[in-house]
Design brief:
With 334 residues, the chain is α/β, with parallel strands linked by helices. It has one domain (10-327): Luciferase-like domain (TIM Barrel, Alpha-Beta Barrel). Helix content is 44%, strand content 16%. It has helices at 21-32, 51-59, 79-93, 106-109, 118-133, 162-171, 183-199, 220-236, 245-257, 276-282, 288-300, 315-327, and strands at residues 10-15, 38-41, 66-69, 97-101, 137-139, 142-144, 155-158, 174-177, 207-216, 283-286, 305-310. The chain has an eight-stranded parallel barrel with strand order 1-2-3-4-7-8-9-11, surrounded by eight helices. Helix 2 (51-59) links the parallel strand 2 and strand 3. The longest helix is centred in the middle third of the chain and has 17 residues, at 183-199. It is globular. It starts with 9 loop residues before the first strand and ends in a 7-residue tail after the last helix.
Length: 334
């Protein structure tokens, strides 16, 4: 449900680092002097620039902007490597780094042909958190411990289906979900998170992060085309809410043609299966007036943070559009 009394969410941005560092630097500088809390960076090493290297470069030139991976996985890097990366970056950035992690998608499907099992995710998160606290683990008969620690580092767990959402409720400081803009779907998704938290004995559910695509253009068709590949990616996954027969047919068409080498890319042919009216159920996209309305709808949902994912061939331009749109929206927490 929506509720005007709900405290306005933190506003963050997501980026898939497929463009030049010159533009990435300008984007980070722009966000560092804005209302954006965190820049979440995509983590798929074959199709984008390497996530943690990118975050390191951007952290060194910013002072307040936080950074996170969205999302890493438990297989590409050993949990101890991820923990050490986080501890190092917390020292470098002054504590401005967060971890987003899930069972994996394009990075694992293209290298291993599978995503991680839920138990692998759970084990990795437990080890990362423990190592960051200074705890020791045994691995193949040898003790593992970090020379530097960073207790309190936030670990957000991403997922789409109800089982992964329940795992986020069990082990995550926060849960990253992609249910779109319809309030009933958002509530169903986070109900699965709350169930996982309750079943594990937690007294409070993890913080709620809504991950949603963003594109604004005076030509609304261009904006819709920019986010269509993102919506296609969302719809091919298991979803933690009831879907219509139309969505089932669209999902089947996407799954039959999905090409991971064009994951989230404008060149993705599989995106053509998603009609315009479905696009705007799952993304903040359109002309400036439409974006203003959709942004207000996203920020009125019962979530703690909204991350607008920059889409299109000009992500720096999308970043400028996001900052411009936020400047006219009074509901954003400063």
């Amino acid at each position: 449900m929506t509720d005007s009394s709900i405290r306005p969410p933190l506003i963050s941005a997501g980026v898939y680092p497929s463009f030049s560092f010159a533009d990435l630097y300008e984007l980070a500088d722009l966000f560092d002097d804005s209302r954006i809390d965190t820049l979440w960076v995509g983590d798929s090493h074959l199709i984008w620039r390497e996530c943690w290297t990118t975050i390191t470069a951007l952290a060194t030139r910013t002072s307040s902007l936080r950074f996170g991976s969205c999302v890493s996985n438990p297989i590409s890097r050993h949990a101890s490597v991820t923990a050490s990366t986080l501890a190092t970056l917390q020292e470098l950035s002054g504590g401005r780094v967060r971890l987003g992690i899930g069972v994996g998608d394009s990075a694992l499907r293209m290298t291993y042909g599978r995503v991680a099992k839920l138990k692998e995710l759970e084990t990795a998160v437990e080890m990362i958190r423990g190592l960051l606290r200074g705890e020791e683990y045994e691995h193949d008969g040898s003790p593992l411990a970090l020379a530097r620690v960073a207790p309190g580092t936030e670990i957000y767990v991403s997922g789409s289906g109800p089982k992964t959402m329940a795992m986020a409720g069990k082990i995550g400081d926060g849960a990253i979900v992609v249910p779109g803009l319809i309030a009933a779907r958002v509530e169903q998704a986070f109900a699965a998170v709350a169930t996982g938290a309750a079943e594990s004995g937690r007294t409070e559910a993890p913080r709620r992060l809504l991950w949603i695509a963003f594109a604004m253009d005076v030509d609304r068709k261009r904006a819709l085309e920019a986010v269509r590949p993102w919506v296609a990616s969302v719809l091919r996954h298991p979803l933690p809410f009831e879907i219509s027969e139309e969505l089932k047919e669209i999902r089947a068409a996407i799954r039959a043609t999905y090409d991971f080498t064009h994951h989230m890319a404008g060149s993705a042919g599989h995106a053509s299966a998603v009609p315009d009216h479905i696009v705007q159920e799952f993304a903040v996209a359109g002309d400036p007036d439409e974006v203003g309305e959709l942004m207000a709808r996203a920020c009125a949902l019962d979530v703690d943070e909204v991350a607008f994912v920059l889409m299109g061939d000009d992500q720096l331009g999308a970043a400028r559009s996001l900052v411009s749109a936020l400047a006219t929206y009074d509901g954003v927490r400063p």
